[in-house]
Amino acid sequence: MPDKLKICIDRVLPQEHFRGQRVVRRRGGPSRAVFEFRKMWINGSTLRVRFMGGSGQEKKTAREQAAWWSEHANLRFDFNDAPDAEIRIAFDKNDGAWSWIGTDSIRISQREPTMNLGFLDGGTAAHEFGHAIGLGHEHQNPDGGIKWNEEIVIRELKGPPNSWNEAQIRHNVLNRYRTDQIRGTKFDGDSNMLYFFPGSWTKSGQATKANETLSELDTAFIASEQAYPKTSVEAIELEVNAQRSTRASIGKPGEEDVYQFTADRPARYLVETRGKSDVIMKLFGPDSPTQLIAEDDDSGIDTNARIVADLIPGKYYVQIRHYYKATGTGNYTIRVRRS
C-alpha cells in the first residue's frame, strides 16, 4: 500500500448533513428519500472557471483533464477567471483533493474555492471535474460489490494524510449512496470516479485499481440522455400571468425541459407544475442559466414542484426533470404567476 493513500473528500452542504433518512412509500413507486434534489446543470451550459493560484503546469493539467468530460458531455468550460465563476479552483497542498457536487457550488461564497487540487496524481483533476458536473464516487454506488474491512479502513484513514474521524470515513468511503440519489449505472471498476483502495481494506482481499483516464462507461453515461446529451435544448417561453398553463411532457427517460420567462418588475413570482408526473424543478437567473436561485421537489400539490421567490427584473430559466430520471415519463403543466 502507498505510504500516503490520497482520497477525494466529499463536500456536503450544511443542510444536507441534517437531512433525515426517513423514506416515504408511494403507491405505484419505490421507497424514496425526502427532498433529495439532482445536482446537474442545465444541459448545454457553459461553466466558467477561475484559478485561485496554481502554477502554469497545474493550470494546464486542470484544463486538459476538464476537456476529457466536455469532449463527450454537452457542457463547455470557459477558463476566463471571472470573479463569479461557477467553478473556482485552489491548489492548497495541505487541503487534499475535493470538489462540491454540481450546482452545490453556486451556494458557496464567491471568495472561496469550489474545488481544491492539492495533488494532481494521474487523473485527479478529471475526477474532481466529474464531481463538479454532478457525478458521485463510484465506490459508493449502491450497485457496488465492495465489502469493506471496516475496522482496517477506519484505522488507516484516522491517520495522516487524511486524519478523518469515523463519521467522515463512513461518509467518504463506507456508506453507499441511496439508489434515488445518483446516476443509474452498474458498478464500474474502471471509472475515473473510483479511487485506488488496497486489498487489505476489502473482505475479498481484492484491491481496486487507480483509474487515471475516463472509462468507456464514464464517457457513454455523461453523453447519455440521463446526463448531458449533445442535443440542442431550446428554452420554451412562458408568459407571466398567462390565462392558461403550458402543457408539457417528459417524453422519454432522462429528458430535460427548459423554460424561460421575463420578470419585468421587482415582485414575488410563483412557478408551479400540475399533473400526475413526479417532477423536480430548478430556477436559475437573473440573465444566467447557471446561477441557481432555488430548487424544489414536492412543495406543490401531491408530487408537483412549486417555487416562490422575490425576483428582480431580468430573464429567468426553469429546468424540469422527472424524479425517476432513469425511467420516469409523463405529462404535466407549468405556469408562472406574479403577485
Structure commentary:
- Helix 2 crosses helix 3 and helix 4 (150-157) packs across helix 5 (166-174).
- The protein is built from 6 helices and 17 strands.
- With 339 residues, the protein is of the alpha/beta class.
- The chain has helices at residues 14-17, 56-70, 124-132, 150-157, 166-174, 216-222; strands at residues 9-10, 23-24, 32-33, 46-52, 76-78, 87-90, 97-99, 115-117, 236-237, 246-250, 256-263, 267-274, 279-284, 292-296, 306-311, 314-322, 330-338.
- The model is unreliable at 17-37 (pLDDT under 50).
- 15% of the residues lie in helices and 25% in strands.
- It folds into 2 domains: 9-222, Collagenase (Catalytic Domain), CATH 3.40.390.10; 236-338, Jelly Rolls (Sandwich).
Question: What labels describe this entry?
Answer:
alpha/beta; Collagenase (Catalytic Domain); Jelly Rolls; five-stranded mixed beta sheet; 6 helices
Q: How would a crystallographer describe the biggest sheet? A: 6 strands, mixed
> How many DSSP helices?
6
Note the gap between the termini.
Answer: 62 Å
Give the neighbour order of strands across the main sheet. 1-7-8-6-4-5
Radius of gyration over C-alpha positions, nearest whole angstrom: 21 Å
Q: What's the CATH topology label of the largest domain?
A: Collagenase (Catalytic Domain)
Provide the structure class.
alpha/beta
Query: Which stretches of 5+ consecutive residues score pLDDT under 50?
Result: 17-37
SSE arrangement, N to C: EHEEEHEEEEHHHHEEEEEEEEE
Strands, count: 17
Relative strand content: 15-25%
| CATH architecture assignment of the largest domain | 3-Layer(aba) Sandwich
Helix content: 10-25%
CATH homologous superfamily descriptor of the largest domain: Collagenase (Catalytic Domain)
CATH class of the largest domain: Alpha Beta
